[in-house]
Write a structure and sequence with these properties.
Helix content is 61%, strand content 5%. With 458 residues, the chain is mainly alpha-helical. The strands form three sheets. Strands 1-2 form a two-stranded antiparallel ribbon. It has a two-stranded parallel sheet with strand order 3-4. It has a two-stranded antiparallel ribbon with strand order 5-6. It is elongated, with a radius of gyration of 30 Å. The protein starts with 13 loop residues before the first helix and ends with a helix. Bound molecules: arginine.
């Protein structure tokens, strides 16, 4: 029997059920649907729409349904088109008349919006914790690699040496913003839509403020039409997840590069690398590639869902059912990618000697030579040209930089220490820069920030 058997007497066509049902994916909302129904029952009792006995009977049936679903014994019927229908149908089976009052002054339109907001609150913090897990690995590795340096790149051309810790921390800060953005989006989603009814509220004396506070929401909706139409929180979370995934993609890209023979900066642990079915020698960074590759789908979710929302008139339209699959997928994908990348990075070996050799090439000190001249009064543009000339001569004629520096009247032996191994990175002393003194400060700041995010994420 359908929920609408009064108005429509014929049973729905099989194809209608197959095409429109959302149960296969919204079954995930079962705990939220039950929590929302419990609060609704308390409210109905409080305002006198359910007697105390009826509320107790329906409450007990909700407990039973919860046990059946978590225990895997709940029997879904072909007519259960979504989780809301299934739960209500079973409660009514168990309780008869009392259960038939459960849906008083409620529509699936406010119910589904409520369930999804409850889901977001429950899983959003779990997602924050999964991303924080990756930050903690990056922080631990940054601490452990101490003063190892690596070439810093612009345009993927060697630019200036940086501490490896500085490089790892750059990814931590991007993820800090992601976790914060998730928190901001969760705060905006913290509004109860229950009590909006189908679209216009109710003639019955319901109390939306009571259910909002009973469910721990910051507040209730202001406008019933908006309450059942609003999926801004979904669009926003899809964007937040897509951007975080973009950050994992950039990190993944670096893992792919660094673990290549060409770079040789990183060796993956066997447990976190894959082999080839044909090429016996291969050790592949598939986790990093998929962290990168899944980003396409995540970006697609944002564009796709905005397109779904774009021309919808107020209020609820069935199109809105398309909110759940991308949202669930975005949470699963980002969380899974963060965990897999955390495992990969925790177990990988940084080839710090190879990094150091790449970082300590004499041309990497070019900027230091120019800055040395600046400190002695040469205008920067002039210093830049002078050192640029030296580098060109060194490259074209194969003369070592040290020799050219030594014999240059404006540089000379005083400037030679700048070419020493490790000299360049040690000189990066400005706040937030890439050298040891300031990176030590930064590391503590990042650790404190991540610890604060972790405490807030529960
Ligand atoms: N399965 C629907 C959804 O996910 C629930 C709401 C259905 N409401 C309706 N009036 N058909 O959006």
């Amino acid at each position: 029997m359908t929920l609408w058997h009064g108005r429509i007497t014929e049973a729905p066509a099989d194809v209608l059920m197959a095409f429109t049902a959302s149960l296969p994916f919204d079954v995930r909302l079962a705990p939220d649907d039950i929590a929302g129904s419990r609060a609704h029952v308390h409210m109905l009792e409080r305002v006198g729409l359910l007697t105390t006995e009826e509320a107790a009977v329906v409450g007990a049936a909700l407990d039973r349904v919860e046990q059946e679903i978590t225990g895997g014994t709940f029997e879904f019927l072909p007519t259960d088109e979504d989780i809301h229908t299934a739960v209500e149908r079973r409660v009514t089976e168990l309780t008869g008349d009392a259960g038939a009052k459960l849906h008083t002054a409620r529509s699936r339109n406010d119910q589904v919006a409520l369930d999804l907001r409850l889901y977001v609150r429950r899983e959003g913090r779990a997602l924050q914790r999964r991303v924080i897990g990756l930050q903690e690995v990056l922080l631990a590795r940054a601490r452990e690699v101490e003063d190892a340096s690596v070439p810093g790149y612009t345009h993927l051309q060697r630019a200036q040496p940086v501490l490896l810790a500085h490089h790892l921390l750059a990814h931590v800060w991007a993820l800090v913003r992601d976790v914060e953005r998730l928190g901001d989006a969760l705060a905006r989603a913290d509004v109860s839509p229950l009590g909006a009814g189908a679209l216009a509220g109710s003639s019955l004396p319901i109390d939306p403020d009571f259910v909002a506070s009973e469910l721990g929401f910051a507040r209730r909706f202001d406008n019933s039409l908006d309450a059942v139409s609003d999926r801004d929180f979904v669009a926003e979370l899809l964007f937040v997840c897509a951007l975080a995934q973009v950050h994992l993609s950039r990190l993944g890209e670096e893992v792919v590069l660094w673990s290549s023979e060409e770079f040789g900066f990183m060796t993956l642990a066997d447990e976190y690398a894959t082999g080839s079915s044909m090429l016996p020698q291969k050790k592949n960074p598939d986790i990093a590639e998929l962290a990168r590759g899944k980003t396409g789908r995540m970006i697609g979710h944002v564009a796709g869902f905005l397109a779904t929302l774009k021309a919808l008139p107020l209020a609820y339209n069935r199109d809105l059912q398309e909110d759940k699959e991308p949202l669930f997928d975005a949470f699963d994908t980002l969380g899974g990618a963060a965990e897999a990348m955390a495992g990969l990075l925790a177990s990988a070996t940084f080839e710090t000697e190879r990094m150091r050799q790449a970082a300590d090439v004499a041309t990497a000190a070019a900027t230091d030579l120019a800055e040395h001249l600046v400190q002695r009064g040469t205008p920067f543009r002039e210093a830049h040209a002078l050192v640029g000339n030296l580098v060109r001569h060194s490259v074209e004629r194969g003369v070592p930089m040290a020799e050219l520096v030594m014999t240059d009247p404006r540089l000379g032996p005083d400037a030679l220490p700048l070419l020493e191994p490790g000299a360049s990175v040690a000189r990066r002393t400005s706040p937030g820069g890439a050298g040891p003194e300031v990176v030590a400060v930064q590391l503590e700041a990042a650790a404190a920030r991540v610890a604060a995010l972790k405490a807030a994420a529960g």
